[in-house]
């Protein structure tokens, strides 16, 4: 079992390593080609898309993967995946429509709405076709997805590089490269799945759709709140600071987002066998603590490297125009280590199928972010946004520890009552 988990994790981490490496190079070219103001507009558009991209997560992997692990027949798994795809795709179309409505209502400038509408196309591609990734996760076999991501990533990097070295400074062509990556990945995932699974469309089962939506709604709400919490800072910053300062802060968060995604990969790779497959709640709870502790150590070590290398990283990637980013990156890197512990502790709510716990956690995180940002940003500028980021991460971890202790007390009480029974 350990060998299977380790192999799968290595492939998933290799995937993320490639994503981070190429992503950093791409962001560096974007920053240099578009300048601080153009980069700020591009990142604001990405923030809008990032928020809307949570809408297709109404039937997330946290709902799909445990069900796939429990199902026995290929036909049942295929039916589950097709129903999940239909739900996600419909939600993706709705999310894309919402982006357009928001841009019209707020009368955003062309430098924002053009890239937003192009980048938003990925909403109808990534999560809907990502049901195949959930299928791979349930089988602890993510290697094909790594290869597909590499192909799509190479195409995006090649297009961005070509635009950069030919002196293109318009935003739209660069946004098209991101949409191309999502389209290629979706095509490859579709080909791989239908080469190994039934090709027929299963009969529609209303009860299955209702169950998936019902079980996924609270997870979905929590994802929506989480995304809002992770992007509220940039939405609050835009009217309060110069767009160049927003660009510097966005550059910082771009690096941190790439780094903290590793936390989700570690949790997703370990959870199926070490957590979801455990029938004993006490064993699962103990494993979750071990996972969270190990992930915190990994997160802190990586954050230390980022903080110590901040000046060099910023100069290499963004150039002298983004000098203010280095100080922000040092502080943000230290705070980002807490997201690793949070990802591990969140497995408890998923294992117990308590999505309302995750929703409550992210509601607290969002409230904390908004409260701290509204108070600190007018006084400290972008440093205030970093303070909000750090405080929100600490609240998330404190919430996870509290729930872990609460479940332990409940389990101990149940054990004692069982022992006392005649």
Any overview of this molecule?
Helix content is 84%, strand content 0%. With 422 residues, the chain is an all-alpha fold. It has one domain. Helix 4 packs parallel to helix 8 (171-194). The chain starts with a helix and ends with a helix.
Quick overview:
With 422 residues, the protein is mainly α. It is built from 17 helices and no strands. The protein has one domain (2-410).
Q: Cα-atom Rg, whole angstroms?
A: 21 Å
Look at the structure and give the mean pLDDT: 82
H/E order of the elements? HHHHHHHHHHHHHHHHH
Number of helices: 17
**Number of separate strands:** 0
Low-confidence stretches: 415-422
Main beta sheet strand tally, sense and closure? none
Distance between the termini: 39 Å
Strand content: under 5%
User: What overall form do the CA principal axes indicate?
Assistant: globular
Structural class: mainly alpha
How many domain regions?
Answer: 1
Helical content class: over 70%
List keywords for this structure.
about 85% helix, globular, disordered C terminus, mainly alpha, about 0% strand, about 425 residues
Task: Record the SSE blueprint.
Layout: H1 2-52, H2 61-70, H3 74-106, H4 110-119, H5 126-129, H6 131-138, H7 143-165, H8 171-194, H9 206-237, H10 243-276, H11 281-308, H12 310-317, H13 324-336, H14 338-345, H15 347-351, H16 355-380, H17 382-420
Helix pairs in contact: 1-4, 1-7, 1-9, 1-10, 2-6, 3-4, 3-9, 4-8, 7-8, 9-16, 9-17, 10-11, 10-13, 10-14, 11-13, 11-14, 11-17, 12-13, 13-17, 14-17, 16-17
């Amino acid at each position: 079992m350990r060998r299977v988990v380790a192999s799968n994790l290595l492939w998933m981490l290799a995937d993320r390593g490639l994503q981070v490496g190429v992503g950093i190079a791409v962001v560096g070219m974007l920053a240099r080609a578009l300048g601080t103001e153009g980069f700020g507009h591009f990142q604001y558009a990405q923030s809008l898309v990032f928020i809307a991209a949570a809408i297709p997560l109404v039937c997330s992997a946290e709902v799909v993967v445990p069900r796939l692990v429990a199902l026995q027949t290929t036909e049942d798994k295929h039916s589950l995946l097709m129903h999940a795809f239909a739900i996600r795709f419909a939600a993706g179309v709705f999310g894309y429509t919402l982006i357009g409505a928001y841009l019209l209502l707020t009368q955003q400038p062309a430098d924002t709405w053009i890239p937003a509408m192009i980048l938003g196309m990925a909403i109808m591609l990534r999560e809907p076709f990502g049901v195949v990734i959930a299928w791979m996760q349930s089988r602890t076999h993510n290697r094909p997805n790594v290869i597909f991501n590499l192909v799509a990533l190479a195409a995006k990097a090649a297009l961005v590089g070509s635009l950069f070295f030919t002196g293109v400074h318009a935003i739209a062509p660069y946004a098209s490269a991101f949409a191309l990556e999502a389209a290629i990945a979706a095509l490859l995932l579709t080909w791989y799945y239908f080469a190994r699974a039934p090709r027929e469309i299963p009969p529609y089962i209303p009860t299955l759709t209702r169950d998936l939506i019902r079980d996924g709604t609270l997870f979905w709400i929590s994802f929506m709140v989480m995304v809002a919490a992770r992007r509220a800072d940039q939405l609050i910053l835009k009217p309060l600071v110069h767009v160049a300062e927003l660009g510097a802060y966005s550059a910082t968060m771009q690096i941190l987002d790439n780094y903290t995604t590793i936390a989700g990969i570690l949790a997703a790779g370990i959870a199926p066998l070490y957590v979801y497959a455990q029938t004993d709640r006490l064993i699962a709870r103990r494993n979750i603590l071990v996972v969270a502790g190990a992930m915190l150590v990994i997160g802190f070590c990586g954050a230390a490297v980022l903080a110590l290398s901040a000046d060099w990283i910023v100069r290499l990637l963004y150039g002298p125009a983004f000098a203010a980013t280095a100080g922000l990156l040092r502080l943000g890197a230290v705070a980002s280590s807490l997201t690793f512990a949070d990802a591990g502790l969140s497995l408890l709510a998923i294992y117990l199928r308590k999505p309302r716990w995750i929703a409550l956690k992210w509601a607290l995180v969002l409230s904390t972010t908004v409260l701290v940002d509204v108070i600190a940003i007018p006084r400290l500028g972008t440093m205030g946004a970093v303070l909000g980021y750090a405080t929100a991460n600490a609240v998330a971890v404190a919430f996870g520890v509290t729930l872990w202790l609460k479940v332990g007390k409940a389990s101990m009480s149940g054990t004692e009552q069982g022992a006392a029974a005649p």
